Amino acid sequence: MATTAESKWKTILPPLLLLAGLIAAWELASLWFNIPEYLLPRPSRIVTVAILKRAILWRHMGITLEEVLLGFLVGFIVGFGLALVMFFSTTLRRALNPIIVISQTVPVVALGPILVIWLGYNIWPKIIVVALIVFFPLTVNTFDGLIACDPDLITLLRSMGASRWQIFRKVQLPNALPFITSASKVAVTFSVIGAVVAEWIGSDRGLGAYILQTNAQIRTPEMFAAIFVTSIMGIILFFIAQAIENLLIPWQKGGKVKRSIQSYLSRS
Amino acid sequence: MSVLNSDFSLAARRNAKIRLENLSISFKMDENKRVDVLEDISFDADEGSFTCILGPSGCGKSTLFNAIAGLLPPTAGNIYLGDRLINGKTGLVGYMFQKDLLLPWRSVLENILLGTEIQGRDRAKSEARARELMRRYGLEGFEAYYPKYLSGGMRQRAAFLRTMMLDNEVMLLDEPFGALDAQTRLSMQEWLHEVWRDSKKTIIFITHDVDESLFLAEKVLVLSHRPSRIIQTIQVPLPEKRSYEMMGNVEIIKLRTELFALLRRESDSGQTESPNGMGK
Ligand SMILES: Nc1ncnc2c1ncn2[C@@H]1O[C@H](COP(=O)(O)OP(=O)(O)OP(=O)(O)O)[C@@H](O)[C@H]1O
Ligand SMILES: [Mg+2]
Question: The pTM is what?
């Protein structure tokens, strides 16, 4: 127990100290060089403004969070679904492969305005922009995870008389799980950026829109407060994804014993 | 001498559980290249018997098991389970592979239950039985562990119990102790022999270790180098219940020397072939 707590501190402490040092340096440099607030506000000022404006920031954050979560959900389902389709049908794999790659060479941000024209000034263009960002890593990684399975494990199941579905469910899917969770961590972080950028294109609400408005009015401390909140949101989402990953693939996370909740999750 | 012979005639009274008739397996590499791995293999493994298959490295032992397990349709010949023709039919015999192949995301208990899940058997009953087997065979307390935290011997036992839980009357064991150190290997051999006497399953066991085959088997089949044929069949003149002291028996030592010479000859003849040993 003591050793794990100790090693935890050893991993947390260095980045924490570095971060604290950087913030302190920023604070001191602003004071020392007397940098005007509209160019670069001091960290203490940003935090003060964030607290002062907490009601409005909270409201915008709620909107952005909704876009992120819905967009992630749609992107996840589509990405996972495409991987399954490509996995089970060689013909569809050949057909889809180039389209999926091409979809990533189109700057998603550039699609924003046209999506607004098509779908209106509502949440859908943002959901689609986020989903477009999310689906790609999910498709690619899920597919890789499904085919990366040790063929001997498949032979083992075949020898037991397993059906195609049982082989998928009991070997190939669990084998893909670490790939899926790892892609999800990347995707959830990107999806925050996606939502903010989508808001720049067509929205008067959400953190992205708020950043744009405050920037236009040279209310720089508020803008930074919004950036600060955005990044906190991304960090929290990342850690939630990380926690879910730890729960789903403990065998890769140094877990020695399988807990009953995990056994329950893995039942067919 | 009299002690050794007491069990000898028993084998003759049993029925054939697995019967191979003129089994041949070839792999087609491309249009004009074919590798003949097994050639005209015929033998019986009686119900409740312990048969060892001894052969040089790469001669086609695993290929033989793949065919019996239905993973590989024979190029020629037939495989029977009892009276039933089982060419290319999977799920009828228990097969323990050369590697333990435990699924890393399953606990040891869940790994042992894998086969019963595939067979769609009652979960609670299977679990109770698996726990009982784990208790009896030294895996108690490790039910919830991930396989990578088990020693090599324990992993092998877990893989074995998984095969046993399938409840097939025939078990194919492909060099299950090949990767173990000498000490663990000896205790695993004694363990397996005990399990076999308890369960009365029909076991076919691959090894390229002469001593292992003589200690375990009632009947030893020796395969030649590729294309593999059966070049020798030996009844081991030992009683069903065995101990290592019996391995010092004069007759066993004679058999041992004979088998060593045979295997040496086969391995050597293999090395004079082209590097990858491919046929025409
Ligand atoms: N699917 C396959 N396609 C082509 N060749 C194969 C295939 N499976 C096995 N072989 C060849 O058949 C030969 C026998 O292989 P096998 O694995 O049965 O040997 P083995 O006796 O089990 O060897 P070892 O003692 O190393 O376990 C080898 O030369 C191998 O390359
Ligand atoms: Mg082999």
Answer: 0.84
